[in-house]
Amino acid sequence: MIGYVTVGTNDIARAARFYDPIAAELGTGRMMEFDNFIAWGTMNGPAGIAATKPFDGNPASVGNGVMVALEAKDRAQVDRIHALALANGGTCEGPPGPRGDSGFYAGYFRDPDGNKLNAFVMG
Asked: In what residue span(s) does the VOC domain sit (predicted)?
């Protein structure tokens, strides 16, 4: 089971502007915050996400093949999260829509640091 996921950032304030509205749409907020780290989620709740400046002091970089998937409650919420991402400095990696015929519906995007995410719902 995953407890939380971190993504690297080179600008904590910019990351906050990007992730705050997405977290709010998902019904949560910041649960931990330091000068170089913000975590969104609920204490003792499901997995959360954090943006952090790398501990080693080097610039944050994107992992090739790495993606964080945010579970939405329905297709309309997938659409809203994707739109929020783009409105707050993200870039589109695939508009919301069905993927295959399994009932999987997702919208893909990157945060301002280039980390890839998606919002999805099954069924």
From this structure: 1-122
**Which pLDDT tens digits describe the chain residue by residue (123 residues)?**
788 999 999 999 999 999 999 999 999 999 999 999 999 999 999 999 999 999 999 999 999 899 999 999 999 999 999 999 999 999 999 999 999 899 999 999 999 999 999 999 998
65: Cβ contacts below 8 Å, ≥ 6 apart:
none
| 42 assigned to some structural domain | yes
Residue 78 belongs to what domain range? 4-54+67-122
Encoded tokens for 81: 């999260």
